């Protein structure tokens, strides 16, 4: 049958026209020898299926049916011949536990494509417990899924469990949409960021649940036009911008909008962090609004003395933080100091706008919350709990 051809089915009351499109094709990895027994390495079978799907001159779907697929590592490369590629995952893809792979940068990687959809209610299982605390490499533990140099990316209804390192790494991508993504790892799992974004623009993350041992979402250098909405974060370190200014000059993060999110028992809520160094950079045009905090240790935080190792040289950060708005943020803080603006003395935070902040502290030693400001310039309006400490511009 040729493309877009039709056939007729006769009924007593009339005719129904059924059209097919031969340009759409499904490539089932079982046809390529995938065992789906959770033990056999199915990497070759899945990559061979991808190879043929990528060659197809039309819409192609690589189908991962129900079952458990052991994959020791895979790079899904483009560009592809068709108009769009779909990776439909219904089963579970499991990472190996062999320590030999702990020093690899990645586990699963998609790259150099225009038009990619990942869907199917399946799960990437990083089996990270075998690696946490046992890492002896110069490089970080491998991320679970990486998207590199991709335009027009859609990821929805996918789970990622127990990544060895970062769960989802987005690098140099344009026009990305993540929806109904569920990411889980224990709160003590090291460096298991949920979604990390760098050098990418127009990325949307909506209606998702992320609980990890590190940032739920982190936006590092080059992140622009990022929109986050309807995300529940916890456990974890919150939603973070940075860190900026550690190794490279002119790190920039701008045009970030986080709205309608909930943080539950997280270490931080909404955070901007920069290293105290001579490296220049900027974080600007950032909005956090309509946020609920539930027993969050640091609900609102700008930290320009970021130094997780504790042995950094004390100096002013050269990264400029400006034009940051906090609006309608409410709930509870598990520490008395609910708002911290610890800004650089050489590059003070400018244009900080705080409106309708209502964060209470309900522990035994008192109901009051407080704020702490260093070199932070801006204005506050509406509800001020804790009381505002900004310097007026």
UniProtKB/TrEMBL annotation:
Keywords from the named record: Cell wall, Cell wall biogenesis/degradation, Glycosidase, Hydrolase, Secreted, Signal
Checking InterPro entries in the record gives: Glyco_hydro_28 (IPR000743), PbH1 (IPR006626), Pectin_lyas_fold (IPR012334), Pectin_lyase_fold/virulence (IPR011050)
Q: Which Pfam families match?
A: Glyco_hydro_28
Task: List the signal peptide residues.
Answer: 1-22
Instruction: Output the PROSITE patterns linked to this UniProt entry.
Output: POLYGALACTURONASE
GO BP: any one term = carbohydrate metabolic process
Q: Where in the sequence is the active site? A: 237
The places in or outside the cell where this protein is found are: Secreted, Cell wall
* Residues annotated as transmembrane: none
- Kindly give the SMART domains that the UniProt entry links to this protein: PbH1
Family membership, please give it: Belongs to the glycosyl hydrolase 28 family.
Q: What is this protein called?
A: Polygalacturonase
Species this chain originates from: Solanum commersonii
Give the source lineage, highest ranks first.
Eukaryota, Viridiplantae, Streptophyta, Embryophyta, Tracheophyta
């Amino acid at each position: 049958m040729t493309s877009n051809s039709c056939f007729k089915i006769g009924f007593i009351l009339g005719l129904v026209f059924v059209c097919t499109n031969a340009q759409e094709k499904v490539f089932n990895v079982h046809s390529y020898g995938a065992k789906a027994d959770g033990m056999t390495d199915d990497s070759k079978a899945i990559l061979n299926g991808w190879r043929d799907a990528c060659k197809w001159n039309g819409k192609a779907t690589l189908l991962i049916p129900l079952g458990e697929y052991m994959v020791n590592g895979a790079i899904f490369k483009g560009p592809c011949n068709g108009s769009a590629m779909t990776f439909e995952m219904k089963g579970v893809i499991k990472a190996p536990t062999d320590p030999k792979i702990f020093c690899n940068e990645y586990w699963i990687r998609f790259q150099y494509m225009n038009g990619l959809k990942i869907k199917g209610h399946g799960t990437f299982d990083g089996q990270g417990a075998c690696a946490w605390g046992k890492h002896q490499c110069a490089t970080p533990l491998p991320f679970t899924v990486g998207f590199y140099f991709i335009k027009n990316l859609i990821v929805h209804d996918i789970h990622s469990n127990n990544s060895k390192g970062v769960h989802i790494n987005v690098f140099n991508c344009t026009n990305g949409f993540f929806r109904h993504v569920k990411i889980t790892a224990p709160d003590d799992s090291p460096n298991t960021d949920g979604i990390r974004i760098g050098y990418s623009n127009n990325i949307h993350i909506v209606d998702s649940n992320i609980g990890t041992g590190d940032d739920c979402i982190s936006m590092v250098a080059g992140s622009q036009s990022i929109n986050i909405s309807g995300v529940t974060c916890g456990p974890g370190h919150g939603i973070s911008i940075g860190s900026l200014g550690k190794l490279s000059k002119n790190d920039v993060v701008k045009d970030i909008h986080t709205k309608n999110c909930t943080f539950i028992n997280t270490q931080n809520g909404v955070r901007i962090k920069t290293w105290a160094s001579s490296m220049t950079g900027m974080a600007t045009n950032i909005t956090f609004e309509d946020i609920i905090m539930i027993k969050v240790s640091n609900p609102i935080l700008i930290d320009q003395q970021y130094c997780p190792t504790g042995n950094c040289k004390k100096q002013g950060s050269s990264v400029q933080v400006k034009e940051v708005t906090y609006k309608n943020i409410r709930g509870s803080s598990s520490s008395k100091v609910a708002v911290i603006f610890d800004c650089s003395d050489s590059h003070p935070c400018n244009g900080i706008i705080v409106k309708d902040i209502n964060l209470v502290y309900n522990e035994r030693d008192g109901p009051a919350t407080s704020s702490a400001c260093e070199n932070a310039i801006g204005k506050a309006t509406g509800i001020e709990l804790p009381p505002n400490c900004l310097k007026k511009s």
